[in-house]
Amino acid sequence: MNKISTQVAIIGAGPSGLLLGQLLHKQGISNVIIERVTGDYVLGRIRAGILEQGFADLVREAGVAERMDAEGEIHEGVEIAADGERFHIDLKGLTGGDVVICYGQTEITSDLMAARAAAGLETYYEAENAQLHEVTGDKPWVSFEHQGEQYRLDCDYIAGCDGFHGVSRQTIPADKRTEHERVYPFGWLGLLSDTPPVSEELIYCKSERGFALASRRSATRSRYYLQVPLDDTVEDWSDEDFWQELKKRLPADAADALVTGPSIEKSIAPLRSFVCEPMQYGKLFLVGDAAHIVPPTGAKGLNLAASDVAALYQILTRVYHDNDTDCVSRYSEVALRRVWHGERFSWWMSNMLHDFGDEVATGMDSKTFSRFMDSERDYYLKTEEGKTVIARQYVGLPYEKV
């Protein structure tokens, strides 16, 4: 068996694992990343593209912001279209200067991969059968297979950044964790195209036909979404069908301006709210999707993963720089506080903008639920106070100091 050692073992080479690794490296804290798939597969995941102010600042702190700052689009506002009207949420004005940056998750991941390779840091892609051992003891370790050989990775701490289906959360005994889940009765059909976006800002659309989102990745690449039934498949939707339905859900002036074209990628994502408590078990820390999932309505998934990274990065820096091991036990408390804020906001936005039909699951009939949501939109979209609540949470609540 090949034996290697490091201070922090990171399971998963997605953006949260790579960002944590880069930040720790900048502080002189050694780390090794283990990833079960290839780097190309990781880069092929088409995911989020809106970065909160705090996330962007964290990327800058990690020293990998050059391309993000050069190519990313600063968005000072966002639009919500509902009840036949378009409402502008002035993010910058309502928050005292905070904005979001439109820069794809794939691009962030690519930048972080390049930085890690340039620094010569160890990453094991296509690592199979990873198992975490003695995570509640003094010296945890990870076993895995790589290119037909067995490895043992000794470490001080383990960061589980391996997603919802990864091994990290499952390492915590079932009787030691509580899982909260809400599965929504619809999914999002997403289409990526090399067409100019219909708007300079994102448009969240509530229509009688269901929800739609007009998003973007750049001035020449668009990302659009439609609410669809859970039993729909990608094969059910031709490009032409998608564009025609999108036009029916967008505001009329936006539909008239829509430029269509062949899809680069189409996929359907089910929506769920999920939180695992606690996010820590001994010397194992859950980060990102390993601990929580949000519906994409509030653009919080990747951003909550970043806030987990920020909390864990602060804690591990104090451990190794100040010999302060007492702060380790605070990770779950600090991370979960912000996670639940993000979960609530995403749940609320989903409730307010989607058509739930007869599957409301709130203890009330669908007509009553719809009337409550009509009132929600009337207050939050037509008053300065309501718009401010949306703006502050959309740009991201401040990271908590540990």
Structure description:
There is one protein chain. The chain is of the alpha/beta class. The chain has a domain of 243 residues: 3-Layer(bba) Sandwich (FAD/NAD(P)-binding domain), CATH 3.50.50. It has 13 helices and 21 strands. The strands form four sheets. It has an eight-stranded mixed beta sheet. It has a six-stranded mixed beta sheet with strand order 9-3-2-13-20-19. A four-stranded mixed beta sheet has the order 1-12-11-10. Helix 1 packs parallel to helix 6 and helix 1 runs parallel beside helix 10. The radius of gyration is 21 Å and the shape is globular.
Question: Which terms would index this structure?
Answer:
single chain; 37% helix; alpha/beta; 6-stranded mixed beta sheet; 8-stranded mixed beta sheet; 13 helices
Average predicted local confidence, pLDDT: 94
The share of residues in extended strands comes to: 25-35%
Structural class given helices, strands, pairing?
A: alpha/beta
Per CATH, the class of the domain at 2-75 and 99-181 and 272-357 reads: Alpha Beta
Number of strands: 21
Distance between the termini: 38 Å
Please estimate the helix content: 25-40%
Number of helices: 13
> Largest sheet at a glance?
8 strands, mixed
Overall morphology: globular
Oligomerization state? single chain
Radius of gyration: 21 Å
CATH topology of the domain at 2-75 and 99-181 and 272-357: FAD/NAD(P)-binding domain
